[in-house]
Amino acid sequence: MKVSLSTKLGQQLTLTPQLRQAIHLLTLSAAELESEINLALESNPLLERAEEAGDSDDAPAVADTAANVADTNAQTDAVTAQTAEEGSADEAPDWDTEPSHSHESHSGGVPEDNDNEQAEAPDGLQDHLLWQLHLTHLSTRERSIGAALIEAVGDDGYLTESLESIREGLLPEIHADLDEIGAVLHLIQRFDPVGVACANLAECLTVQLSVLSPETPGLRLARQLASTCLEALARHGADQVARQLGETPAAVHEAVALLRSLDPRPGGQIATAAPDYVVPDCVAYRQAGVWRAALVGGQTPALAISRHYEALIGKATRDDATYLRSRLQEARWLIRSLQTRADTVLRVAQAIVRQQSGFLEYGPEAMRPLTLREVAEELGLHESTISRTTTRKYLHTPRGTFEFKRFFASGIANETGGAASSTAIQAMIRRLVDAEDPRKPLSDARLAVELKTSGVPVARRTVAKYREALRIPTSNERQRL
User: CA 418, 423, 429 angle in degrees (round to 5)?
Assistant: First the structure.
């Protein structure tokens, strides 16, 4: 074996601890960032919230860390230039928060006071059913069977397992036949909400009909439709089913109206989890006719260096001084990284608001195509930085609260030489479907023709893809009786 020395030239990216921390903080949501800061405050005695320290003591700490922000910004592609003037100080922002006709919100509503406190989570569906089971006069054996049945109930209220598999799951403690399990199941199906623990929609509707008064108009025919004619009713309509059954169309329509008054997903009546509120990172507002963006107050907690512990460094023993110096450096890195994160989030939000001002003014149909590359080139940042910044960051607008990613969409060239974003096309499809004749819904081919008439030439398959993304059923399924 011959041993020799050789040289090789290459490039390697080294992530310093500061850079790793800056990247990590940039990917966190607002709630995760608060948790990260709380952990840092608990573990680092050199850190404290700015409001806990005196103004005179904080000023040197802030100036000390702000001087080095530019270095970290250059490393992380976070801040390279200041944005345009935010307008004169005497211009009052137009906080136009009137709800728009378009209420599409990717993330749902946000409380006005941004209160993170949530109400205590209500019991889930299974807990609700078990509570009723324990209030019923049953033997220990029957309650065990009932608990096994309830455990197999999904969030929508339907059984997720067959009775045979439930019977096998009771072994070897309980040997029950299907008739015994069915008797307990019959009781559970009439718990609140009525119709839970059914195997399919027909059984669910039949159970709900069984608890109605015998004098209910259309009850007899509704039972027949629910048990044998649901598929034919959806495919062929009430009139044709009336001819097949030898009933008058009026009687069938009355029975159909009764079926529509029932709940096809009884489990949805019982909340299974507390609402997940989203706290926005930035807010879009109009000032002097121009749309602008600003950070939401309190989203980036102000931290400062504890001057008390910093003063102890010169008085402490060698080991203690070494520990305090390392913690002091970590505190400065964290403050610097937080400032970098805030600057980057704000700059990206401002770029989004500038690019999508049409959406803020006119709604989803005015959403223009936008890519990460366009924003990256505008801000002088890398695409990966934009991607991290748009993940789990939310912008509150008069039209709702949206994740930053919601404003990025691919585009399709239109007949005027411009481009329509996929979001705008989906909004147009939604508008056409909402305005269609329920007896003659628009097919995908017809929707493509309507879009082409509006100047957006798209293929039928593209319309089908967008329709499915909007969870809009096919034209046959949308046909109303």
Answer: 95
Residue 69 pLDDT exceeds 50: no
Instruction: Report DSSP state, residue 406.
Output: G
Asked whether 448 and 432 are in contact (CB, 8 A), the reply is no
Say how far apart CA 291 and CA 407 lie, in whole Å.
15
In whole angstroms, how far apart are CA 53 and each of 56, 57, 61? 8, 7, 11
- β-bridge mates for residue 198, sequence order: 158
User: What is the rounded distance in angstroms from the CA atom of residue 143 to the CA atom of residue 132?
Assistant: 11
Residue whose tokens read 């912008």 = 395
Contact between 93 and 292 under an 8 Å Cβ cutoff? The reply is yes
> 3-class DSSP state for residue 153?
strand
Which of residues 346 and 424 earns the better pLDDT score? Answer: 346
Confidence of residue 279 (pLDDT cuts 50, 70, 90): confident
Supply the pTM of this predicted model. 0.60
Which residues partner with 397 through β-bridges? 400
Greatest extent of the chain over all pairs of C-alpha atoms, in Å: 101
Nearest to 310 by CA among 65, 67, 66, 33: 65
Q: Where are the CATH 1.10.10.60 domain residues in the chain?
A: 410-478
pLDDT score for 113: 40
DSSP summary character for residue 201: H
Contacts of 71 (CB under 8 A, 6+ apart): none
As a CATH number, domain 410-478 is: 1.10.10.60
- C-beta separation of 181 from 146 below 8 A: no
Cis omega (within 30 of 0) for bond into 473: no
Q: Identify whether the C-beta of residue 150 lies closer than 8 Å to the C-beta of residue 270.
A: no
Residues 360-386: pLDDT tens digits?
A: 999 888 888 899 999 999 999 999 999
Structure tokens at 64: 């000390």
Whole-angstrom distance, CA of residue 295 vs CA of residue 187: 55
Q: Which residues lie across from 287 on neighbouring strands? A: 93, 290
pLDDT of residue 114: 41
At 300 the three-state DSSP class reads coil
- Is residue 172 reached through a cis peptide bond, with omega within 30 degrees of 0 on the bond before it? yes
- pLDDT, one tens digit per residue, over 456-467 is 888 888 888 889
* Strands, E assignment, 205-320: 282-287, 290-295, 303-305
CA 428 to CA 365: how far, in whole Å? 6
Site of tokens 């995760």 = 32
